[in-house]
Every structure is written in C-alpha cells, then in structure tokens.
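Crash report, auto-generated. Payload:
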Amino acid sequence: MHALSIRKLTKTYGNGVEALKGIDLDVEQGDFFALLGPNGAGKTTTIGIITSLVNKTSGTVAVFENDIDRDIGAAKSCIGIVPQEINFNQFESVETILVNQAGFYGIPRQVARERTERYLKQLQLWEKRRAIARSLSGGMKRRLMIARALVHEPRLLILDEPTAGVDIEIRRTMWEFLRETNERGVTIILTTHYLEEAETLCRNVAIIDKGRIIEHDKMSNVLRKLQTETFVLNLREALPIAPSLPGFGVTLVDARTLEIEVSNGHNLNDIFVRLAAQGVDVVSMRNKVNRLEEQFMRLVGRSGSQAGNAGAQS
Amino acid sequence: MNASLGQPASRSRTDWIGFQTIVLREFNRILRIWGQTLLPPAVTATLYFIIFGSLIGSRIGRMGGYDYMQYIAPGLIMMSVITNSYGNVVSSFFGARFGKHIEEILVSPLPNWLVVIGYVTGGIVRGLLVGLTVTIVALCFTHLVVSNVALIIAAVLITSIVFSLGGFINAVFAKNFDHISWFPTFILTPMTYLGGVFYSITLLPSWAQTLSHANPILYMVNSFRYGFLGVSDVDVRLAFAIMIAFALALFGLAVYLMEKGIGLRD
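Recovered output after restart:
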C-alpha cells in the first residue's frame, strides 16, 4: 500500500508563480523517504498541500488511499507534521501544547496525558513539561514539534527540515529516535538540507527542482549513478608539485593536501600503490563532499541547464 | 503505535473531544489574561453607572417608566457582551494566525464548521462571564427587574453568537493588528452607542428613528431590555428574527471562508 500517492499535482500561487508543475510521487508504507531539492524547489508547497495548509491548483493526493478531496478528515488523521517554522503557541506550556494537539485529533484527555508523558520522556523534554514554550532552546523547540506530531500516533510522519539549527549531538539523538519510530512501522518523509542526514536515514529519495521531480529512486541507486567521487588525502610529507597519476584528476590543494577525482570502476588500492611508489605517504583520507550531495548538485545543475536550454529554444 | 490499529473512535466522538479542546483552550486563555478580559469591563461598567447612572441619571428622570439607571442597565450589560464576544474571538483567532499555531487546528481532522463553533463558543463564554460581571456591578447600583428570563437568555446568547462570528470573520481578513482594532473602533463602538444603550429612540427626531432601525444593535439591546423591563422601542419578534438571520448568515460566511482557506491557506 502507498502511504502517499500524488498524481499530476500542480500549484500556481496568486502572484503567478508556478511552484509545482505536475508532480507524480509514490511513497510506500513503512518507508523512510527523502524529499530533497534546493530552496524554492517546491518541497514545502508539496508538504503544505498534503497537510492541507496549501490549496492545490490541480491533481490528486491520497494518504493511505484516503483522497484529500473526498475524505480530508481520514487523510489528516493519518498524518503528523513537523513544519519548518515554529508554529506552536509560545505562551502555552509544553505539556498543554501536546495535550491540546491530541485533543484536536479526538484523543481523550487521559490517553493524551499518558502519550504526552511517553513522548516527552522519549525526546528528553519531560523535565520541561511545565515550562512555557518560548523559554525553550531552539533544539528543544524542534523536539517539542516532533513530540507534538506524534502524540496522535500518525501512520505517516512528515518532517520539514527537522534538524535545522540543531547541534550535531542533538541531531544524532533525533536521528536515532526517528529510526526507532520508523522501525515501529511509521512511514517517514523527510526534507532536509543536510544531505548526510538523508543518506544516513532514508531508503528512497525524490529530488524536486523548479516544481518537477527530477529523480525518484532507491537511495542506493541514486548514489550508484554517481560517476566520479573526489577524495581528499592528507600527506605526511610536503610535496612541491602534484604527483603523476595517469587516469586520475589530481590537484595539489596545498603542500600536504591532495584532491583526487576517481571515476566509477577505478580501484582505490591502485592509487595508494602508485603514490607509495613515488614516496608519497598518505596519513588520512575523506570524501571531499557527501556522496548524495555530489549527486544532488549534478542532478540539480543538469536540471537547471536543461531548463535554460528549453527556455532558449522556446 | 498506530492509532488505526486500535478501536477506532466514532467521528462524532472525536469531533466532540476536538470541540471541547478548543473551548477549554479559549476558557483557559480568558482566565490566564483576566486582567485584559474580565477586569476592564467591570471597571468601565462601574464608571458608567457612577457617571450616567448616579450623577447625570438623577437629573434625567424616568425613561420608559423606569429610573434612568434601571433603564440603561440592560443596555450596558449588552454592550459589554457585544464588545467582549467580538474582542475574544478576533484577538484569539488573529493571534493564532499571527503566531501560526492555527496550523495545529488546520492540520487536524476537525471539520471547519466545528472550528468556527469552537471559537464562537469561546466568545460566548467570555461574553457571558463579562455580562455576569457587569450584572453584578449593576446590582450594586440599582435594582434589576426581570420580566422574562427566557428572553433575556435567548437575546444574550444570539447577540453573543452574532458578534463572536463577526470577530471571527474580522480575524480571517485581518493582515495586521491595526485591522483587528479598526472595525471595533470605527464601526462597532458607534453602532453600539447609537443602538439605544443610553436612550430610547423615541427621543430622537423621526428621521433619526428611521435611521436607527437600520442598526442591528438596536434590536439586540431592545430585545434584551424587554426581557428585563418589558419595554422595547422595536417589535421583539422582529428583533429576534433579525438576530437569528444575522447569526445564520455570518455562520455561513465564516464556514465558507474556512472552507476556501481565505487568509488561512495559500
């Protein structure tokens, strides 16, 4: 069953901006799905339409087979949303925000209180339950929104930039929590600018750019399509010039740092053997950029140039 | 974890809980900011009764067969109900839009008509609490005659509904805080003062009497006053028909605005 099924979805805003130009998207039940794209690509508009915060222009959206035009109530009951911007009442207590949110979904107060305790404890906010929301730190506010999205126990959790502005320690704690949530059977759709986050957590990915889906595949397939990767090598001894490595693109960034571009199918051992033969001792190595980031930049860049060509022809 | 795996609650039951949640949240808000919601109307009413009732009223003499203080008491109670029902919904709903926490309700499965009723009930609660407060203040200054309790309750309830809906619609269209004070300042307050709170329109020249009949607040104040004193400047049946028509029309408009997402959804 599809947790989410979108067909020919378009959105044109009142000012004439075409945010979505007929997107099709399927997310399987139980998936951990990344919806990626540059700023202004249409991610938040898509999420807004799914959660009924934005009116669509045309197309269909179904959440667990509940069409939002025919049974919006059933569709909404399945969704929990963590928006990009803070949108809780900053003057209410943490506990009140969760209990009220459960109430809006028809959950009796006693059950709502039990769930509030459970989720606040899981997200390390229980000690802050009586605090006024505006007194929380940025990371706590993000976690509060995750707890609020889960309090009615949705089948589909949508997170729009959930870790923006959150330090790395809390981010990793949140990753762990989201992984456990997904393992319990909740389908998760994640948008993020931290592509490492998407690569680490998500099994499937769609990339949206200028209102169109330009990639929709398994994460592993998307990464496999990457033709080249750039590695950064830190050297023990300083070099006056870049060593000769025919078949590889080599750049000496500074005396002790080499960048080597490696095509798919090349053996990394070969590089080390050839460097060792030239007396170059490698201390450490890392990817120059995250692999998904590299593929993302290629896809978005290509989409931009195709749009440019199409524009030039029209 | 999955809610749908458990025993599904009926839609009417979940809607009822959602409605209760909105009303309870509004009630808690009214109590939390009591210094802005409950206290000022009591102070204002006290000043009105001292100035218009005791000081000036004693020189005016009788009106409609009653002391001036007795005559204006129902009007003053109704005026506070009107302004507070309106003010509660307009500030709460616009505040929720401004702070974006209205999205908590918009993403929930609560039907739009129930969201409107929830906020309107919040307005009624504040209107009645303030009305009760002003009634207690009035009893400190004068003796209130009660002619028909059912009419009093009906008039105050329908009036409160009408102005709560008005506040809701104002909040939907408002783009900033100026927009939520514009209507009460330039429309609502003049209409209330010219709606027979302080006088019988029989004191006005005939053209002004005719013009006054175009003011819906005249019907609300007079039907309420009729419930207390048994005197009215208008036909009470016509007054109730007009009030009910206003309530239905404004409710329809408020639900329509919610359905279309005007001011709420892009």
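Post-recovery validation: The radius of gyration of chain B is 20 Å.
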